[in-house]
Design goal:
- It is built from six helices and no strands.
- The chain is mainly α.
- The N and C termini lie far apart (about 40 Å).
Amino acid sequence: MYYILKILIDIILFKAGPQDIPAATFLLKLMLLVYFLTGLLATLLNFNFFTAIEISIIDIFLLILAAVPLLKLQKLDNRILQTLTAIFGALGLFNLISLPFDIWYNLLLSGNYEQNLNQLPSLIMIFLSIWGLAILGHILHHALNINLILAAGISIFYMIFSIFLTSILFI
């Protein structure tokens, strides 16, 4: 398991790609569970339990819809398992790393703190959002054999669509 964690850390740091993850169905299921649970924890900061579950499940489906059709379109079906494992594993680990900052940011937003106190956590949250998008773009870049700009564009489209869909359905 240490070996997998090392690969996921390397993906987050842009030193490895989805091709470095072993192609194993069990590993995909485990990473899917990790991603679901870490996403659920982050979503619970803003939504009730059942809504957080719904949002987390929708997010998983959107990530699958962002990757699988593109891989099939490129005739790279053999990369689906590794790509999804890398996406859910790396972003699940990233969610776990980001969680303390999410909690801090939400605590500051819920209190009556001076405006300048909220600037640092806001900047950190912006940085983490960009980094998370870059991780997804990095994975898609390697998996789809496309340039990084296009992969980043797909990541940004995923984020915008995810926020749009969440706001329509739950806000």
